[in-house]
Amino acid sequence: MIDLHRIDVDEFKKVQKLPVVVVLDDVRSEMNVGSIFRTADAFLVEKIMLCGITSTPPQPEIHKTALGAEDSVEWQYYKDVNDAITQLKAQSYTICSIEQVHGSISLEQFKVSAGGKYAIIFGNEVKGVSQAAVDASDCCIEIPQRGTKHSLNVANSAAITLWHFFSHHIFS
Predict the structure, then answer these.
(1) SS3 state of residue 98
(2) pLDDT of the chain along its 172 residues, tens only?
(3) Residue 130 and residue 71: Cα distance in Å, rounded?
(4) Is residue 128 within 8 Å of residue 24, measured between CB atoms?
(5) In angstroms, rounded to a whole number, what is the distance separating the alpha carbons of residues 79 and 64?
(6) pTM for the full predicted model
């Protein structure tokens, strides 16, 4: 890790984070949750809010894909996603659901505002982001796709979306 210039967990907790909070709305697969923790660590995400049926650490299946990122990335659990959204709105976060809906913004056209704080909601593997969360969002963003499928795995969606926010933050 030294040769790769990686920081340890204690140093990670002190580093300035990307002003992005990930909200997982009823994500059922613990392996997806773990993968999202690992991506959140890679892109210095502020924290993850685990909502509804989304499992919380410690769980062997989360750890299998998180590889310890569940210890570095701050997280909180909320029984109801709306409680998480209410808290984030009170803290002036822009709430963005990653969902294909009428009027959604294509990810490559979404402009990340310098100094902006964002909460990005990812939904259930089958049902997507709940309608209540979509309704409470300031915007919906979709990842453009041109193949025969109309969705991506939630962990892949999180990686693509978080890279977009991270790259605009570090290159702006």
Answers:
(1) strand
(2) 556 678 889 988 999 999 999 999 999 999 999 999 999 999 999 999 999 999 999 999 999 999 999 999 999 999 999 999 999 999 999 999 999 999 999 999 999 998 899 999 999 999 999 999 999 999 999 999 999 988 999 999 999 999 999 998 865 5
(3) 28
(4) no
(5) 24
(6) 0.94
Residue 134 CB: number of other CB atoms within 10 A? 18
Query: Among 130, 162, 104, 163, which residue's Cα sits nearest to residue 27?
Result: 130
What number does CATH give the domain 9-170? 3.40.1280.10
Q: Which residue has the tokens 């993968």?
A: 35
Could you give the CA distance from residue 172 to residue 168 in angstroms, rounded to a whole number?
Answer: 6
Cα–Cα dist 133/137, whole Å:
6
Distance in angstroms (rounded) separating the CA atoms of residues 109 and 133: 22
57: tokens are 């650490």
